[in-house]
Design brief:
InterPro entries: Acyl_CoA_acyltransferase, Arg_succinylTrfase_AstA/AruG, Arginine_N-succinylTrfase. With about 375 residues, the chain is an alpha+beta fold. Helices cover about 30% and strands about 25% of the residues. The longest helix is centred in the last third of the chain and has 17 residues.
Length: about 375
């Protein structure tokens, strides 16, 4: 499995993924012109020299290196809400109190807002059902954090993810069905298609501008506020392990939760390591003094390029911490466009668990003081989330 930037020859497969993902997956829609423009925008974003986040959009694809088929997609929007508003509902409570009548009532409300304007959004994660295999989902989710760690100037301090809300097999959303009856007489597939294509004018024109009192909603609509689609639960669990938290912002159409984290505190970013590469083949003089870490254990490995970005999961590497050197076989180096002496970034797959042992295992045993500091920093980091 190889992660790489999307290319124009991926258009047919990308359209098929847009069909497979169904309504509610607004970052990919079944429209060839839209998808062609999205591919070009991504190509331009990877090629652009960037000093601060703007309207760049990075779309990666997961390719089966044996068959060449696309297994899935994953993406990053550098700074959302700049050219087209990013709307959410914020769930809060209002209190009505009359001291004269001695009556008190606390009511939950939803207020429309643009709270996340300017934030970085991770998005477009989809793994095709027939390609679901060990570590494929982890690679699609966590590769974005390796890219952010290597190119922090391209991304905002706050990173968000909009999680898909509840809808049935027919693409019907209980939350939207209530809004449709009372405010916008368009079906769920149509509004998600319009929104995904950037046509959000109808939101300002037709959606209610005053707080929605949730006790006035139908039971089925109220029950799904902040809930995720069953197929999205593994992705949410993975993000929660990275440190993402839900702070009561939900999607306008299906009421799915939006989660957020500070970029610097995302575990895969904080625990990733930069290293030099030593390519091993039959003629290589192997540098092997001192301890070796992680031999035979899976890690996520990426080069440090932008438009030439490549990443994969491998168990064929071993790390020499005293030299900050990662030894990999020649065929793997070729797949990742890495040469001997090149800089790469890697992340042990068990590092996001938050356990001290994961970090210490990849540290030099002789660096006792460094390991002690690492434990202290990890503990502080754990409780800061």
């Amino acid at each position: 499995m190889i992660i790489r930037p999307v290319a124009h020859h991926d258009l047919d497969a990308l359209q098929q993924i847009a069909v497979e993902s169904g309504p509610g997956f607004t970052s990919l829609i079944d429209d060839r012109t839209f998808l062609r423009d999205k591919i070009q925008h991504s190509i331009d974003s990877f090629a652009r020299r960037v000093y601060e986040p703007g309207q760049e959009s990075y779309l990666f694809v997961l390719e089966d290196e044996d068959s060449g088929e696309l297994m899935g997609t994953t993406g990053i929007e550098a700074s959302v809400g700049l050219s087209s508003p990013l709307y959410h509902y914020h769930k809060s409570r209002v209190v009505h109190h009359s001291s004269e009548l001695d009556l008190f009532n606390s009511v939950e409300v939803l207020n429309m807002c643009n709270h996340y304007t300017g934030c970085t959004e991770i998005c477009t994660l989809y793994l095709r059902p027939r390609f679901r295999r060990a570590n494929a989902g982890k690679l699609l989710s966590r590769v974005r954090f390796l890219f952010m760690a290597q190119h922090p100037q391209r991304f905002a301090d706050t990173v968000i993810a909009e999680m898909r809300g509840i809808s049935d097999d027919n693409g019907e959303s209980p939350f939207w069905n209530w809004l449709r009856v009372h405010f916008v007489n368009l079906d769920f597939a149509t509004v998600t298609h319009l929104s995904g294509a950037g046509n959000k004018r109808f939101i300002a024109e037709l959606m209610p501008k005053y707080p929605l009192y949730t006790n006035l909603l139908s039971d089925s609509a109220r029950d799904v506020i902040g809930q995720v689609h069953p197929g999205t639960r593994p992705a949410l669990a993975m993000l929660e392990r990275e440190g993402f938290r839900h702070k009561d912002y939900v999607d306008l159409f299906d009421a799915g939760p939006t989660v957020e984290a500070e970029r610097s505190q995302i575990r895969s970013i904080a625990q990733s390591r930069q290293c030099r590469i030593q390519v091993l083949d039959a003629d290589t003089a192997v540098l092997d003094p001192g301890p070796v870490c992680g031999e035979g254990e899976p890690l996520l490995l990426a080069n440090t390029a932008t438009d030439g970005f490549r990443a994969t999961i491998t168990d064929q590497a071993r790390y020499l911490p005293e030299h900050q050197l990662l030894q990999i076989p020649a065929d793997l180096a070729a797949q990742l466009n890495l040469e001997g002496g090149a800089i790469a970034r890697f992340l042990p797959l068990n590092a996001s668990s938050g356990e001290h042992q994961a970090t210490e295992h990849w540290s030099s045993p002789s660096a006792t003081r460094f390991s002690s500091l690492n434990r202290s920093n990890t503990e502080e980091f754990r409780h800061a989330l």
